[in-house]
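Severity: low
Component: inverse-folding endpoint
Summary: output formatting inconsistent between runs
Steps to reproduce: submit the following structure tokens with default settings.
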């Protein structure tokens, strides 16, 4: 009997160790934790191969607990709806190799917040509809810094040195409180609200609002832009300050309040 009990206890201990190992990345609140070692080991979610990109195939919340260095690969691939990635103040970085993306999703409801995404050649953060990106600094790509679909929100972010758009959004979007610097197009949205942003540096267009009804208010654009504020006829704009560059405003929108072009009111 004693030998049998010892055998049972040993088996239970082995099971406990296996369970602990399999759940070691699961925080007490159900959030799945990701660090460099976990990413390299794989199996963060079902179907996630060792190394990068880390594949998140189940909806839920994921929390970085260290910096992630993806090397020449993409960083995180989201393959399920309603996934939240909390960078938790850490940095996801690559080496700017062609084709690499920082965080990519073609599913609705993705959310990314609170950290840094750096040096992915084909884009920093690319999310689909109903997305939220907040408090993230995204730097150095030959494509878009932050790109989101319809009904999305980008707030309190920084987009720096991107070959296409610093921040791009679809229809019915809110782009608010951001800084975009040294990108070909600073900020573009197809519809919604663009407000309280700062666009700096030089490029083709500071803020571009096209297509559907959009409100562009209380933004600051300065630097050597070909066009500071480019709009379609359905755009209302007011309270903006545009300085420097070749052409402050393309005059296609409707002024809903005074705007400052250089040191004078825009006409």
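Observed output (run 2 of 3):
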């Amino acid at each position: 009997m004693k030998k049998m009990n010892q055998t049972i206890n040993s088996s239970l201990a082995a099971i406990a160790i296996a369970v602990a190992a399999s759940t070691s990345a699961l925080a007490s609140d159900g959030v799945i934790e990701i660090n460099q070692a976990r990413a390299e080991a794989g199996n963060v979610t079902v179907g996630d191969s060792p190394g990068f990109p880390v594949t998140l195939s189940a909806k839920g919340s994921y929390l970085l607990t260290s910096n992630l260095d993806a090397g020449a690969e993409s960083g995180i691939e989201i393959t399920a709806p309603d996934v939240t990635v909390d960078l938790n103040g850490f940095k996801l970085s690559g080496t700017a190799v062609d084709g690499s993306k920082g965080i990519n999703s073609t599913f609705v409801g993705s959310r990314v917040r609170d950290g840094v995404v750096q040096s992915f050649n084909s884009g920093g953060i690319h999310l689909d509809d109903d997305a939220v990106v907040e408090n993230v600094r995204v730097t150095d790509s030959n494509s878009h810094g932050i790109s989101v679909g319809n009904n999305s929100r980008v707030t309190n972010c920084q987009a720096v040195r991107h070959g296409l758009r610093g921040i791009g959004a679809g229809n019915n979007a809110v782009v608010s409180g951001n800084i975009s610097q040294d990108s070909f197009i600073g900020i573009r949205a197809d519809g919604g609200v663009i407000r309280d942003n700062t666009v700096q540096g030089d490029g083709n267009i500071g803020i571009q609002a096209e297509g559907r009804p959009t409100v562009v208010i209380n933004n600051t654009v300065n630097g050597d832009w070909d066009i500071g504020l480019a709009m379609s006829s359905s755009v209302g704009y007011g309270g903006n300050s545009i300085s420097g560059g070749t052409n402050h405003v393309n005059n296609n929108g409707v002024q809903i309040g005074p705007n400052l072009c250089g040191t004078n009111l825009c006409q």
